[in-house]
């Protein structure tokens, strides 16, 4: 029985009461009024978001550089937006709806190659059951389950289940590794291999169509190929129901999923159990990912008397009422069943008869769970546990913890919104929902997933909420990495084939087979022999990420390839292999069992008269003449055929699975039990519930037809508004519409290219500052530590003076989505067998069991970083007179800075209206008392020209960005360099030029170095302004063309201020981008200077427009490509819109690929030199930069230089003759070694990723000997790195001097000091001073001057803020 109602007091066991009478009418009326009020509120709340979304889509649809599809952008927005709520709320497109209804599969499950089984020792479970009244005998290996063992390679996808009647009949076997589907390869590295979802989509298709599969079978060298016909695959809710062979009084039911008919199937199975008078029942819910909550209520009703309170559900939305569940007669119409699914009358079964069949008071019940037991399966387990009617046993401490349900709501386009609408509660009142999502269910409850509220079962046992279903008894899984390797490599298969060939006529090869010591020893010898021959490389399977090889490569690249390191690596390799082989002794039972199964499977293949069919028997015979499978009459599930009756007779009497397989492993053995590996059946309770107003594809077609006239922008906007309304009306919790909107829109823009961005109010203000290069403040640059609320976040560095950012900021320089292999982990619970004391897992017991285990090093490092961050506080990075680098800020006016204060908060207090005063209280290292300084806020100008200086006739200008005033600043710097130091001694009466400098001879400047290294770009107009200073009057500088951007040609309209006789060199590197590349490209194409550096520039040839939007927001989006004077576009990367499906992971990502060399076109400069497009600006004169040693990089990135400088300043005074002498250098070495011992820095950080991953793998595998060798390798690496203190003493000394001086000297003086050791600057200056190489590169004496003729009219600049 289900009742809709409202909450009662907490003292009442029932959470809700029904609506009835006048009170019920009042409540209904109140809800209706509240609903109307909420509709009005929602309309006002959503108006802002919808208006902005329409504006943004319109801009992109009309003016983005390439054509975009608004509906595709809408899907990306929606998927990313919904992904912030929870993993189950999602948008389902009309195409996905049709695909779901029409596409069928091949009857096989696949997963990434390499997974293998674990064991839960049935003997241990049997022994602990002595504590259970009327103990139920559990057979050995009953608790066998699947779990990844860490052998995960990228060689395709392994078949883990091949169903009879489908893929199996066509010749596809468990263990086969699929390498290609319809001539499309599915192998490669982690970045290129298709996702599991993509592979499943390739296997699916219309009913009756064929798909070609290329696969490799372990033990067979040649590839095989078969054609499979796609069919409608029916999966039973109950794949097996029967009694145990060793005790026919014990029933066993495998409940795989909670489909619509699960209640009826279970009803039949339990009636058969009742007829057999079972005294105990094992209900297997392992790997049951849930399904229909209503089916769980139906099944629970079969065990309890009518009227028993089973639980409830509630949500925040107004669309779906709260529900209360009781056992008994259940109305199917209340749960979204379609009319076509319902009988015509009550007598035909509109109501489910939930009459009790098995009484838990008479029949002892055990429920098996694991960490993949979820949703409806957890509800059913919770009912039994709360009412003290069953014992929960599992390999994991608790189940998954999914206590939320979903429904589908149809949308105007024929798609659907699947959203979480309620949380369910078990009879005790607890909710099993474990994970709390950032903007989803009860996200405002702090640390709810760590600390659950206590509840009690009916008999008073203590249980937790928000923790899933915690088991009453836990059995540690036994794992063997060697077993996983032998399965994946085909070693089991190869030995079984050889063994059966030798004993083909032996009568003892049947289901009674037990691998004796002799056979086991032969197998061990076989493995050792194959390993020595190189046919079975155990090390490669263990180290599939090639971590040891990477360590060796890093050692070579870092010049640390000492003999000792190489020796330690060799010893570690040998020890890993030996530890693997030791599994033959420590994991004897597991390996024996797998070997038995493979020999039996191989023998069945040999003896079977038909290779296309066999029988699957799970846990022995059903008992007393019943069939081996229970299905609903209406389900079209194909029964096993008797073709292999002789072979089947050998297996019926044993608790084993004889599954024809070319893979030895538990996945093959019990694969049929683990159907949830298919994502289609991993959905939540009401994944199939559909509103009755849309029941068919015809209905969808009608809706789609009605919307054909809606234009490209209106349709997604309407859908967007509909989804926002539905979320407000029906989502389980309150939603933050603004946060959803920003998340979705940012994902949409990120799907186009790395430069298109939506800017929120704060971000728009910061963008404006980067454009103008000005803001109201005091000019301090500050940094802070971690966000202390999030332990795992990295150090956050911010500044009151934001750095200049252009179209290619640090983030934007990432040319393609980064990929990283997830670390492999092999973990197991800490206790072999443990009773759950009163329902609550004893955490102290777990800690005691863990006392010999290594501590979590990652957590220790995070805590140490957090502590250091709190101690450091907010520090000054760059300061004005009166403050120093390293000063710790304590207060801004009356605002006190705490250890947890965010940098942005401090920055906002520092900024304000120009002319207003601000008091800054700070603490200086070495000074005991705080100091306070008061300064007046002003308009702070962020200069683009950081430094300029003449040296022996060669000038140098460091240009760091392209804000509004970049052209003016460079002009002033050139004039100053041309006039030299004479301007400093000039009087007010001297005649001055247009730059305000004393008029002298500018020809004294023989050469100029324009340093654009690491210049990320900025405004297009500023790039034109700078280029105009160098190129001839009337020259083309750059042109821009885009789909909605007017074609524009920018020409030089003034004479250059650089004398034609002055040699010009432009320094660039791989981070020179955008506007900086325009300047470099124009100078190169017009042959007015040479480009100097290591190789190519970044290659960003895209132009962005900053469009103001309502509500003080902005959209920065790509509108055009630019072209240098020769006509080339230097864009090195081609971007395509990312898949909207990627948005489910938090945001869609654009797709990118580099322009291949063969696709690059040749253009000519003014003097006829050849240059190419599609790859940035290539240098004319190559100079390698000085390479920093690994130790220098480590000391810099870890902040060790800065930390020592702070300590040094406490006890030293800076003098004019300051130098880092030998005494100071030795003191610095001691400082570094002490920090290394304390764990504040890691000198081996270059190798840390590989060392840490190896440490995890060895710990999980319990390879103690290899772990000791790994520790020895780490020590050798550290020892070798310390040698760099001697090898690179001069470089480290210079770095240390610079860092100490940075606390006292201005930036200009530091830059000047840095130039002394800058190899590229000094070599460029030499080249300019000599002049011969310069003239040769430009071929000035051989080719007459050439001017470009403009190919398009000069157009006025569009009224936009165009960025590059």
Description:
Strands 1, 2, 3, 17, 18, 23 and 24 form a seven-stranded antiparallel beta sheet that branches. The longest helix is centred in the first third of the chain and has 43 residues. A hairpin with a 2-residue loop joins strand 34 and strand 35. 34% of the residues lie in helices and 18% in strands. It is α+β, with helices and mostly antiparallel strands and 1364 residues long. It is globular and about 115 Å long. About 21% of the residues have low confidence.
The number of helical segments is 39
Biggest sheet, in brief?
7 strands, antiparallel
- Head-to-tail CA distance between termini: 65 Å
Radius of gyration: 36 Å
> Which structural class should the secondary elements be placed in?
alpha+beta
Question: Can you give the helix content as a percent range?
Answer: 25-40%
Q: What is the number of E strands?
A: 53
Mean pLDDT: 75
The fraction of residues in strands falls at 15-25%
Q: State the low-pLDDT regions, or none.
A: 4-20, 114-154, 440-451, 607-710, 786-855, 981-991, 1140-1146, 1341-1361
Anisotropy-based shape: globular
The gist of it:
Residues 794-840 are annotated as: Disordered. The protein has 1364 residues and is an alpha+beta fold. The chain contains 39 helices and 53 strands.
Topology:
Layout: E1 2-7, E2 16-18, H1 21-63, H2 70-83, E3 90-92, H3 94-102, E4 103-104, E5 108-112, E6 116-120, H4 122-128, E7 145-147, E8 157-162, H5 167-170, E9 177-181, E10 184-185, H6 196-203, E11 205-206, E12 210-216, E13 223-229, E14 240-244, E15 247-254, H7 262-275, E16 280-284, H8 293-301, E17 309-314, E18 323-326, E19 329-331, E20 351-353, E21 364-369, H9 376-386, E22 391-394, E23 404-410, E24 416-425, E25 454-456, E26 462-464, E27 473-475, E28 477-478, H10 481-489, H11 491-502, H12 517-533, H13 538-542, H14 547-557, H15 563-581, H16 583-586, H17 588-607, H18 645-651, H19 666-670, H20 697-706, H21 714-730, H22 737-750, E29 757-759, H23 761-772, E30 774-777, E31 781-783, E32 833-835, H24 843-849, H25 857-872, E33 874-878, E34 888-892, E35 895-896, H26 903-910, E36 917-923, E37 931-936, E38 938-941, E39 945-951, E40 954-959, H27 966-979, E41 1007-1011, H28 1020-1028, E42 1036-1041, E43 1048-1051, E44 1063-1067, H29 1075-1085, E45 1090-1093, E46 1102-1109, E47 1113-1123, E48 1133-1136, E49 1151-1154, E50 1162-1164, E51 1170-1172, ...
Helix pairs in contact: 1-21, 1-22, 2-21, 2-22, 7-8, 8-9, 11-17, 14-33, 15-34, 27-28, 28-29, 31-36, 33-34
């Amino acid at each position: 029985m289900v009742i809709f109602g409202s909450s009662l007091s907490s003292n009442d066991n029932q959470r809700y009461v029904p609506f009835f009478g006048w009170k019920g009418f009042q409540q209904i009326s109140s809800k209706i009024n509240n609903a109307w009020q909420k509709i009005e509120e929602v309309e006002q709340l959503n108006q802002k978001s919808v208006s902005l979304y329409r504006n943004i889509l319109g801009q992109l649809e009309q003016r983005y550089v390439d054509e975009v599809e608004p509906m595709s952008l809408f899907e990306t927005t929606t998927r990313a937006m919904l992904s912030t709520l929870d993993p189950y709320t999602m948008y389902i497109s009309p195409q996905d709806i049709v695909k779901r209804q029409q596409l069928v599969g091949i009857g096989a499950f696949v997963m990434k190659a390499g997974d293998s089984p674990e064991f839960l020792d049935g003997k241990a479970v049997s022994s602990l059951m002595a504590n259970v009244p009327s103990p139920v005998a559990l057979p050995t290996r009953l608790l066998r389950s699947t779990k990844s063992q860490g052998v995960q390679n990228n060689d395709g996808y392994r078949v883990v289940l091949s169903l009879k009647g489908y893929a199996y009949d066509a010749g596809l076997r468990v263990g086969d590794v699929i390498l290609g589907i319809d001539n499309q390869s599915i192998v490669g590295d982690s970045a290129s291999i298709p996702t599991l979802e993509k592979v499943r989509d390739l296997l699916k298709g219309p009913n009756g169509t064929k798909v070609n599969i290329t696969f490799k079978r372990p033990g067979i060298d040649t590839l095989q190929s078969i054609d499979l016909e796609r069919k409608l695959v029916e999966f039973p809710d109950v794949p097996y129901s029967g009694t145990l062979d060793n005790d026919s009084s014990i029933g066993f039911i495998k409940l795989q999923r909670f489909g619509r008919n699960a209640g009826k199937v279970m009803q039949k199975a339990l009636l058969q159990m009742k007829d057999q008078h079972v005294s105990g029942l094992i209900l297997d819910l392992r790997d049951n990912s849930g399904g229909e909550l209503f089916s769980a209520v139906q099944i629970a009703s079969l065990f309890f008397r009518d009227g028993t309170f089973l639980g409830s559900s509630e949500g925040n939305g107004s669309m779906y009422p709260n529900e209360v569940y009781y056992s008994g007669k259940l109305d199917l119409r209340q749960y979204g069943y379609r009319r076509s699914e319902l009988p015509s009358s009550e007598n035909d079964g509109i109501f489910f008869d939930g009459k009790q069949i098995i009484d838990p008071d008479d029949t002892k019940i055990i429920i098996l769970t694991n960490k993949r037991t979820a949703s409806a399966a957890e509800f059913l387990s919770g009912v039994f546990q709360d009412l003290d009617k069953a014992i929960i046993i599992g390999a994991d401490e608790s189940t998954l913890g999914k206590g939320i349900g979903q429904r589908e709501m149809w949308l105007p386009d024929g798609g659907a919104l699947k959203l979480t609408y309620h949380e369910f509660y078990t009879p005790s009142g607890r909710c099993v929902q474990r994970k709390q999502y950032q903007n989803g269910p009860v996200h405002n409850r702090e640390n709810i997933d760590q600390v659950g509220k206590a509840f009690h079962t009916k008999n008073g046992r203590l249980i937790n909420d928000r923790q899933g279903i915690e088991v009453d008894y836990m059995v540690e899984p036994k794992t063997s990495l060697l077993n996983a390797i032998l399965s994946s490599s085909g070693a089991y298969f190869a030995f079984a084939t050889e063994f059966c060939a030798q004993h083909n006529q032996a009568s003892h090869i049947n289901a009674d087979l037990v691998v004796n010591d002799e056979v086991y020893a032969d197998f061990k010898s076989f493995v050792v022999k194959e390993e020595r021959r190189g046919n079975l490389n155990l090390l490669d399977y263990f180290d599939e990420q090639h971590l040891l090889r990477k360590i060796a490569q890093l050692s070579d690249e870092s010049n640390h390839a000492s003999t000792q390191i190489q020796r330690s690596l060799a010893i570690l390799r040998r020890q890993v292999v030996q530890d693997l082989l030791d599994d033959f002794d420590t994991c004897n039972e597991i390996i024996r069992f797998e070997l038995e199964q493979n020999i039996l499977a191989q023998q069945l293949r040999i003896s079977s008269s038909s290779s296309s069919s066999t029988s699957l028997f799970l846990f022995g015979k059903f008992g007393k003449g019943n069939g081996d499978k229970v299905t609903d009459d209406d389900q079209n599930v194909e029964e096993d055929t008797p073709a292999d009756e002789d072979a089947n007779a050998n297996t019926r009497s044993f608790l084993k699975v004889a599954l024809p397989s070319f893979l030895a492993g538990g996945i093959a053995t019990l694969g049929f039990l683990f159907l949830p590996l298919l994502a289609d059946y991993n959905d939540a309770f009401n994944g199939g519930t559909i509103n009755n107003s849309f029941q068919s594809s015809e209905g969808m077609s009608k809706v789609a037809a009605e919307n054909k006239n809606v234009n490209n922008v209106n349709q997604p906007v309407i859908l967007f508004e509909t989804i926002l309304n539905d979320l407000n009306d029906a989502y389980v919790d309150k939603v933050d519409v603004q946060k959803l909107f920003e998340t979705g829109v940012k994902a949409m823009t990120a799907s186009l290219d790395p430069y298109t961005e939506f800017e929120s109010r704060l971000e728009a203000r910061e963008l404006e500052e980067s454009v103008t290069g000005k803001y109201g403040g005091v000019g301090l640059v500050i940094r802070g530590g971690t966000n202390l609320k999030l332990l795992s976040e990295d150090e956050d560095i911010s500044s009151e003076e934001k750095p200049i950012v252009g179209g290619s900021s640090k983030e934007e320089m990432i040319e393609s989505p980064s990929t990283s292999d997830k670390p492999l982990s092999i973990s197991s619970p800490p206790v072999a067998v443990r009773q759950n004391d009163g329902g609550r897992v004893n955490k102290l017991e777990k800690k005691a069991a863990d006392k010999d285990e290594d501590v979590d090093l990652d957590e220790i490092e995070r805590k140490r970083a957090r502590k250091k961050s709190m101690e450091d506080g907010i520090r000054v990075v760059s300061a004005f007179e009166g403050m120093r680098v390293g000063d710790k800020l304590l207060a801004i006016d009356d605002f006190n800075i705490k250890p947890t204060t965010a940098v942005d908060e401090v920055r906002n207090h520092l900024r304000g209206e120009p002319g207003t005063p601000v008091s800054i209280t700070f603490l200086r290292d070495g000074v005991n008392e705080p100091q306070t300084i008061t300064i007046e806020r002003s308009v702070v100008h962020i200069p683009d020209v950081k430094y300029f200086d003449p040296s022996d006739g060669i000038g140098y200008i460091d240009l760091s960005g392209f804000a509004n005033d970049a052209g003016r600043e460079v002009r002033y710097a050139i004039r100053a360099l041309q006039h030299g130091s004479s301007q400093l001694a000039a009087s007010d009466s001297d005649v001055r030029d247009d730059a305000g400098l004393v008029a002298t001879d500018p020809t004294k400047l023989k050469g100029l170095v324009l340093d654009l290294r690491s210049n990320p770009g900025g405004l297009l107009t500023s790039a034109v302004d700078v280029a105009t200073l160098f190129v001839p009057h009337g020259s083309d500088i750059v042109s821009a063309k885009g789909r909605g951007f007017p074609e524009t040609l920018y020409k030089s309209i003034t004479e250059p201020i650089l004398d034609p006789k002055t040699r010009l060199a432009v320094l660039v590197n791989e981070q020179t981008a955008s506007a900086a590349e325009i300047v470099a490209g124009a100078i190169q194409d017009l042959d007015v200077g040479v480009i100097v550096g290591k190789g190519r520039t970044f290659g960003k040839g895209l132009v962005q427009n900053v469009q103001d939007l309502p509500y003080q927001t902005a959209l920065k989006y790509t509108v055009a490509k630019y072209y240098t004077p020769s006509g080339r576009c230097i864009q090195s990367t081609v971007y395509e819109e990312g898949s909207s499906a990627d948005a489910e992971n938090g945001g869609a990502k654009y797709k990118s690929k580099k322009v291949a060399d063969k696709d690059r076109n040749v253009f000519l400069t003014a003097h006829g030199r050849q240059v190419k497009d599609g790859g940035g600006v290539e240098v004319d004169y190559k100079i390698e930069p000085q390479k920093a040693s690994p130790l220098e990089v480590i000391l810099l990135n870890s902040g060790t230089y800065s930390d020592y400088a702070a300590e040094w300043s406490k006890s030293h005074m800076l003098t004019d003759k300051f130098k880092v002498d030998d005494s100071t250098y030795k003191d610095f070495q001691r400082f570094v070694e002490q920090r290394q011992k304390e764990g504040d820095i890691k000198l081996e950080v270059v190798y840390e990723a590989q060392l840490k991953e190896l440490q995890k793998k060895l710990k999980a595998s319990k390879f103690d000997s290899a772990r000791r060798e790994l520790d020895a390798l780490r020590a050798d690496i550290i020892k070798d790195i310390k040698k760099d203190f001697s090898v690179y003493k001069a470089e480290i000394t210079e770095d240390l001097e610079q860092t100490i001086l940075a606390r006292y000297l201005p930036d200009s003086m530091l830059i000047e000091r840095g130039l002394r050791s800058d190899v590229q600057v000094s070599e460029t200056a030499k080249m300019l001073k000599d002049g011969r190489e310069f003239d040769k590169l430009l071929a000035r004496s051989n080719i007459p001057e050439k001017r470009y003729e403009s190919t398009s009219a000069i157009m006025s600049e569009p009224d936009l803020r165009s960025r590059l």
